[in-house]
From TrEMBL:
It comes from the Bacteria. It comes from Streptomyces shenzhenensis. InterPro entries: DUF742 (IPR007995). This is DUF742 domain-containing protein. It holds the Pfam family DUF742. Residues 1-10 have a biased composition (Basic and acidic residues). Residues 1-35 are annotated as: Disordered.
Amino acid sequence: MTPPQRRRDQPGQQPPPPESAAADGENTGRSKNPERLYVITGAADGPRAELDLVTLIVARSDPPPSLPPEQAALLRLCTAPLSVAELTAYLSLPFSALTVLITELITAGLVQARAPIVRQALPDRSLLEAVMHGLQRL
């Protein structure tokens, strides 16, 4: 699965009509349906992995045929490291639902979560000033 590409609007092109609401008044959109999220995540009551929006997720193997479609799509997207924020956007799922899916994949050993690189310490201000003054003298 490749990430979606943006399309530029052509002059004179009409935008697609908005999705109409169901006859009974319920919203049928993908991201607005809480029942769909429960079906995707199941009754996952256990502990969840400690994930940030910037945590990188990398697939360790190809998706087995027994995986649900959402988890298989997540594995196909993660052949290269992607952040959790990017995955939420590509799969159109909320962060909480994606956390449950990623936790299941981590416990199965199919993906690896990498913490973002954190700067240990900022350089000394006097060192930066000495470099700046040296560059100004050139």
